Amino acid sequence: MEALHIQGIQMAESLQQRTMSQEKVWLIVTHMGDPKAAFLLFFPLSYFTCRRTGVALLWVAAISEWLNLVFKWMLFGERPFWWIGESRLFVNNPPKVQQFASTCETGPGSPSGHAMVTAAAWWVMAASLGSSLYSRTHSVLLSALPYLLYAGMLLAVGLSRIFILAHFPHQVVSGTVAGLVLGVVLSRRVPEGRPLLFFVCCSMGLLLGALLLHAGLEQLGVNLSWSIALAEKWCAHSEWIRLDTVPFSSLTRDCGALLGLGLAQYWKPGGWSLPWAPRALCVALSSMGLYHINRLPLPIRPQTLFYSLFFLKFAIVPQVVMVLVPGLVHLLTDKKKKD
């Protein structure tokens, strides 16, 4: 592994030296590949394009991020920004690399969550768009374009994670492969129209399953907070360490989103039927609403309160996208038609 890590540092150094002028582009790409972007950005966009695709994307994103958390707890992957210092291999000849505000994530590094969740969630969109294009045009070439864009975006996200020293190349590759497999498998069975009890059981099952695994590993003497200590030690700026990058934050996000998905389908089975123009308005309003919900400051002490509120925040997301905003737009457009 040491040779693999050294090669990864060399690749990151070369990438930074050659493309530092595109720093802002890399940072935008890495934010687009953030798992929470699947919930806050791509979910409303896909939902108002095709209801089934939106439900599938949220389902796939939540399950794949939960599995990524489990894999990270089991694999103990290093991250480049702390491995450089911990390895003591570069004391006399430190690599010419720099950190960024997005670098200092606190969870283990393997496999890459950005690559894994992005590959899984974006597969849903690519497959849906490709199928739609083929049914309309019967052109294999046109229907292949979403898959080419999918591959190109995954490559860009992977390189961005290497560029900012968040992951080694092999972590990006393993995350991408795992995400692709999950996207293909999970998108075949979309829980559209399932009863609320199904989502309650999924949400609580994933939450309790992760907590039991965590407790079991701790009982075996495994320190699952090791990565947090290293991130705090080697991060260039302490303010770059954020509680929403801690593994338990992703856990509460996934469980909250699944419960919210069940509640949204319970409140309004089948969703709202809207023409294309009101749907575009729904995308804009939902995106604005989720942007402000995401910006809501949460108290970080006590941490139990933070995680509880984080859970509620992402349980609200499907309500906004699937119930509140389309319901409001339907009410306004229907009233306008009657007038």
UniProtKB/TrEMBL annotation:
Subcellular location, principal: endoplasmic reticulum
List of residues binding substrate: 79, 161
All residue ranges annotated as the Phosphatidic acid phosphatase type 2/haloperoxidase domain in the record: 53-187
EC number(s) from the headed UniProt entry: 3.1.3.9
Keywords, ordered alphabetically: Endoplasmic reticulum, Gluconeogenesis, Hydrolase, Membrane, Transmembrane, Transmembrane helix
SUPFAM superfamilies, A to Z: Acid phosphatase/Vanadium-dependent haloperoxidase
Lineage: superkingdom: Eukaryota
GO cellular component term of the entry, any: endoplasmic reticulum membrane
Active-site positions on this chain: 114 (proton donor), 167 (nucleophile)
Localization: Endoplasmic reticulum membrane
SMART domains, per the entry: acidPPc
Alphabetized PANTHER family for the sequence: GLUCOSE-6-PHOSPHATASE, GLUCOSE-6-PHOSPHATASE 3
Record family assignment: Belongs to the glucose-6-phosphatase family.
Protein name per Swiss-Prot or TrEMBL: Glucose-6-phosphatase
Organism: Myripristis murdjan
Gene behind the chain: G6PC3
